[in-house]
Amino acid sequence: MNNFNKTLLAVAVTLASSQAMAAGFQLNSQSATGIGRAFAGDAVIADNASVLSRNPAAMALFDEKQLSMGLTYADVQVEVKDVAMGDVHFGSVNDAAEAKIIPNFYYVSPVNDKFAYGVAMFSNFGTGTDTTELSNNIVGGKVPAPIDLLGKTEVTTINFNLSASYRFNDHFSVGAGVDVIYGSGVLTRGGAVPNPQGGDPIHMDLVDVDADGIAFGGIVGAVYEINADHRFGVSYRFSPEFSADGTVNYGGTDFEEINIPIPDIFQVAGFHQLTEKIAIHYTAQLTTWGDFHEISVSDPIDAQLKHYAWDDSWLYSVGGTYTLNDSWTLRAGYMYDQGVVGEISSISIPDSDRQWYTAGATYNLSKHTSLDFGIAVIRGEETDLVEYSAIYQQTPTPINATTLSNATYYSMQYNYKF
């Protein structure tokens, strides 16, 4: 694994950090156009260069160079309520996540009527929750909070992608790309415990991780065009297991690396221009969250830091586009996003099924320049969970909590055709 200079990457990491508002800690924030239509059909619509985040084969649909860049402001609300062990209550956190700004950049360049290439920068995964304020609660001066379950959890990834496409004929195109993925993680667990000698409580650090690293993944895709008005796209993104180094302390032992598996993403999409003004589009996407079974540390020994045992999940979205006039294009969409939590739930990464309600628009400033706007209202479900703490006795003790994750995304994007 290669190391990055953290000083050089500080700005990029700050911008890319984000609280997940899709299943697990997956992000759906790669473009303003995608947000406006709930990412329905995004693997094949190819109305701007941001299609590169979903399907490299769709670059074959371009006949001129295009640039897209944008920002998404994610206003996230995560509540962790009524953390309790039986009748002992440790409190609630009403705002366990921070709002974030998520950037993106895409450039697509056709070489001739067969080949095209593109470069991109975006993020597919990220999470950030902080329940540290509960970790110093000692109820009745005797019962500490479950400090092994409470603290800060932040995972950030940023993709640097280089892709190419090839058109076989008027109907079939393929594409492939390489992802260089920078990842960083912060994980802290600890807090106050009673002093066995009496007096002030003792602060105990159980986990202290601040690490980063790089890994390599890839994507392959295809597009089939019945004609200019009806087409289908498919893609598969291969994701690596991350090994990051830095500060990795677990149970008082310094480890060399923390290992975080990242799931693969498979999606199929369709687009149909029904009339001169109206189009419909849709997507089904599978994310192999079953691969995210644990976070572990390694060297000098291998040890399990956190067990998750999540399930694979699907999302389904449908959207519509309406061309109002030469200046304005309107869009809207709906997404149903399955949660990933199976038998083992977690306070640190709250999850549930989510509903996305989205709208957006494109304004054409000129023949070459346009602006995209998108907004998504995301609503999760209130979830009662049980997680087991090991700090009280030899047998893990059940801790109950209720979590709720909602968000609103505001996104803007600049597009230029050369």
Automatic annotation (TrEMBL):
InterPro entries: OMPP1/FadL/TodX. SUPFAM superfamilies: Porins (SSF56935). Keywords: Cell outer membrane, Membrane, Signal, Transmembrane, Transmembrane beta strand. The keyword Ribosomal protein does not apply. It is found in: Cell outer membrane. Residues 1-22 form the signal peptide. Pfam families: Toluene_X (PF03349). It is a multi-pass membrane protein. Its main location: membrane. Belongs to the OmpP1/FadL family. This is Outer membrane protein transport protein. It comes from Shewanella eurypsychrophilus.
